[in-house]
Design a protein that fits this description.
By secondary structure, the protein is of the alpha/beta class. It contains 15 helices and 9 strands.
């Protein structure tokens, strides 16, 4: 009996998504079947693919090498022409040094390293394709570990938040029943959105909250009716995009709106206030640095989980994935945030 002690079914499925050709696929599927089906013999499983038990035994033994070798060198009969199977020792050392720098230093639009980002960099820079599992091993060998980074936000004073909450409750009570309360927020989704990333082991990481990477820009709104509205923006946020959003919100939720939003300059601009003066829209601004009061922030958190640690190769690909994810996001209860 052959055991794949160092390789799991998940590892084999990971490699299966990356191989090309009928034979490598059969080899991996047979190994997965063998590990998943208790009681099935090697002969029974091998016969499904037209082979003998000896064939399966040889490949099960060979797959043990996935722990230490690139999958191309293990799964295929021989290296595919024109494609290097692995990094040279010099290239490996160079790559490990790069991992201790920011991805920005090698012109990548991401604040820290993830497995998909590192894997794509190896492919583009060295022409070598490794499995995700092998890339994780290289990251660990380079002295990196998987950590959660703390975002660097400006924090509001708790007393300012308490004062604002009391004031908002009074304002809400003074509005007539035809007003819809809508909270607004903005986000920038980059091509590699990090929830966790790889950092040097002795480092307590933080990630700057910044908009300097290429990104998909979104304005979002959550209504107290339980509805949401999202507006992709082709340009950087400005007073014009804010006015466009307010106009769209009236079409979506009705003329009478109480819009609650943060103190970004494009929300507080003179042009925005002049537009609102001609409408039944009431503007109410959160205290600075108070994302926890805004229910639309919860929509972004859920979007981050949907897109987190995936590498998108273009903004079009990112936009399609983001809008599909937003369609599935249910609106949070606004008053749990606004009136805790």
């Amino acid at each position: 009996m052959v055991n794949l002690d160092s390789v799991s079914v998940e590892d084999l499925r990971d490699v299966l998504t990356e191989v090309e050709g009928k034979k490598p696929t059969q080899r991996l599927m047979a190994a997965i079947n063998y590990l998943e089906e208790d009681g099935a013999t090697m002969e029974e499983i091998a016969q499904r693919y037209g082979y003998t038990a000896g064939w399966l035994s040889r490949w099960l033994t060979r797959f043990e090498r996935l722990e230490s070798e690139p999958f191309e060198a293990v799964v295929y009969d021989e290296d595919r022409s024109g494609r290097p199977s692995e990094l040279t020792e010099q290239e490996k050392q160079q790559f490990k040094e790069i991992l201790h720098e920011s991805p920005e230093d090698v012109d990548l639009d991401a604040p820290a390293w993830s497995v998909p980002l590192a894997r794509n960099y190896l492919k583009e820079e060295y022409g070598v394709e490794y499995s995700n599992r092998h890339v994780r091993r290289l990251l660990r060998e380079a002295g990196l570990s998987w950590k959660t980074a703390r975002p660097e936000f400006y924090k509001s004073d708790e007393r300012a938040q308490e004062t604002w909450t009391k004031g908002f409750k009074k304002k809400r009570n003074n509005l007539d029943d035809r007003y819809t309360i809508v909270t607004v927020d903005q986000t920038r989704q980059v091509l590699s959105k990090l929830i966790n990333a790889w950092f040097p082991k002795d480092e307590r990481p933080t990630l700057p909250v910044t908009g300097k990477w290429k990104s998909l820009k979104l304005l979002g709104a959550t209504a107290d009716t339980g509805e949401t509205f999202f507006l992709p923006c082709e340009v950087n946020f400005n007073s014009g995009t804010t006015i466009r959003l307010l106009d769209a919100l009236q079409t979506e939720f009705g003329e009478k709106l109480c819009v609650v939003l943060d103190n970004a300059s494009y929300f507080t601009a003179k042009a925005v206030k002049e537009f609102v003066a001609e409408t039944p829209i009431e503007l109410c601004y959160f205290p600075r640095g108070s994302p926890e009061l805004n229910p639309t922030e919860e929509c972004w958190r859920r979007l981050d989980r949907a897109l987190g640690n995936r590498l998108f190769l273009s903004l079009d690909e990112l936009r399609a994935a983001a809008l599909a994810a937003l369609d599935q996001i249910r609106s949070p209860n606004s008053f749990k945030y606004l009136c805790p």
